[in-house]
Amino acid sequence: MSTSSLPGLLPELEIVRKDFPILERTFEGVPLVYLDSANTSQKPQIVIDTMVDHLERHNANIARAMHHLGAESTEAFEGGRDAVARFIGAPDRDEVIFTKNASEALNLVANTLMWARGDLQIGEGDEVVITELEHHSNIVPWQLLTERTGATLRWFGLTDDGQLDVSNIDELITERTKVVSLAWVSNMLGTILPIAEITKRAHAVGDHGRGAVVVVDASQAAPQLPIDLAAMPADERPDFLAFTGHKTVGPTGIGVLWGRRALLEQLPPFLGGGEMIATVRMEKSTYAGIPHKFEAGTPPIVEAVGLGAALDYLSHIGLDAIHAHEQAITGYALDGLATVPGLTVLGPLDATQRGGAIAFELDGVHPHDIAQVLDSQGIAVRAGHHCAKPAHARFGVQASTRMSSYLYTTPGEIDALIEGLEYTRRYFKLA
Question: Which listed residue (48, 65, 277, 387) is catalytic?
Answer without folding.
Answer: 387
